[in-house]
Amino acid sequence: MSQNNSRLLETLQSVLGDFLVNHFVQADQLTIVVKAASLKAAMTGLRDHQQLKFDQCIDVCGVDYSAYADGAWDGSRFAVVYQLLSVELNQRVRVRVFCENDDIPSVDSLIDVWSSVNWFEREAFDLYGIVFLGHPDLRRILTDYGFVGHPFRKDFPVSGNVEMRYDEELKRVVYQPVTIEPRENTPRIIREEGYGG
Question: Is residue 187 assigned to a domain?
Fold first, then answer.
């Protein structure tokens, strides 16, 4: 671990205390895991503490761990990952929080901490079905209003659930069950005699 990450980790441990569950360094970036129940308090501390000053949340994304490590993952299925930046102190940290309920994954909305998370949270809701409790306008942002399911979940069918098309007779767009038959393509390899020899 670099000296900068070591100093940052010491500060994070003193500021977050019991909120901090785990930490690791990957690609020279420090990642911390915080408890879902204390997410808002932890993130407010990261923003307001004078030695941290993470004044910007530059990205939020959902993660589905159901097929992680070839199915060997035994933790919670869904997580939310936040990328925080302190412009003044020139430091970054990645924060991960696991949703406690796999059936209805949810965490607190951080829109009161950083207003920039508004559309990021809507995107994670739309694509993963993660509910951000307290979000003032949590609705789909990338898929159609009539879309069924959450397309970034590992169990979402590749061909989808419904398809839409314009119906000439009805003069409108109609939704119908997917009519594509799933098939498996096996590439045919043709090699000339003596290839590679």
Answer: no
